[in-house]
Amino acid sequence: MKTFILGGGCFWCLDAVYQKTKGVSSVVSGYTGGHFPDPDYYSVCSGMTGHAEVVAVTFDEDVIPQETVLDMFFALHDPTTLNRQGYDVGTQYRSSMFYMTDTERALFEEAIERNQTLWTAPIVTEVTRVGTFYPAEDFHQDYYGKNPDAGYCHVIINPKLAKARKYYSRWLTA
């Protein structure tokens, strides 16, 4: 099993897609990349902690290749906008990849290069060594699965799920 820690805007969006991805055994929404100990949602949203909203995606490489997990990440958000995804603005929504080893860092950098061909503007995804990962509050875990009728899910998450199904249907469950 392998775990990637990825930030691409609101963690609910990445969580929703990876929860439905074959070979993914766990998705944990959380915070990392900042300087504030034991952050919570409200402190992270203040933009003062330095943390990003992220997901820790644990998957089985025998089921889904790591390159596919990373390519999905680049398809699910706009990695060319600095500190913003749609209406979510601030450093906590930055496009980010947090590596644990130099090998993983190189893999992330290769994924950026590979996916740059899909974007006209330069990818600004931050690649940083991971610090402490803080799981988000229970309310944020599997948000889409628990709240599929919420407005945010209809307006923001459902289009991302539709895009994932269009390009990665082989890897997604119902």
Automatic annotation (TrEMBL):
It catalyses: [thioredoxin]-disulfide + L-methionine + H2O = L-methionine (S)-S-oxide + [thioredoxin]-dithiol; L-methionyl-[protein] + [thioredoxin]-disulfide + H2O = L-methionyl-(S)-S-oxide-[protein] + [thioredoxin]-dithiol. Belongs to the MsrA Met sulfoxide reductase family. The active site is at C10. This is Peptide methionine sulfoxide reductase MsrA. Residues 4-154 form the Peptide methionine sulphoxide reductase MsrA domain. GO terms for molecular function: peptide-methionine (S)-S-oxide reductase activity. Keywords: Oxidoreductase. HAMAP family: MsrA (MF_01401). It comes from Sinomonas puerhi. Has an important function as a repair enzyme for proteins that have been inactivated by oxidation. Catalyzes the reversible oxidation-reduction of methionine sulfoxide in proteins to methionine. The gene is msrA. Pfam families: PMSR. Its EC number is 1.8.4.11. It is an enzyme of class 1 (oxidoreductase). The keyword Oxidoreductase applies. The keyword Acetylation does not apply.
